[in-house]
Amino acid sequence: MYICICNAVSESDVHSCVQAGACTTRQVKNACGWKPGCGSCTRRLSEVFGQAMAASANASSDTSAA
């Protein structure tokens, strides 16, 4: 699903950025080449970024526990 239609950024793009080490939404925007557009995606980006960070943290704790 697209998070930002103006920049053609999808949920999987955000998850990939987090897996690659992005720790802030600004880093995700920079990695995706995000340019200012209509702004309607800002809240959705924050939600998906939070989900990606949580998933990354869970994956890290599962790996270190093994």
Automatic annotation (TrEMBL):
Q: Which family does it belong to?
A: Belongs to the Bfd family.
Query: Which terms are listed as keywords in the entry?
Result: 2Fe-2S, Electron transport, Iron, Iron-sulfur, Metal-binding, Transport
Pfam families, per database record: Fer2_BFD
Name of the molecule in the record:
Bacterioferritin-associated ferredoxin
The protein's superkingdom reads Bacteria
Entry-linked InterPro entries: BFD-associated_ferredoxin, BFD-like_2Fe2S-bd_dom, BFD-like_2Fe2S-bd_dom_sf
- What is the native source organism of this protein? Nocardia jiangxiensis
Domain BFD-like [2Fe-2S]-binding intervals: 2-49
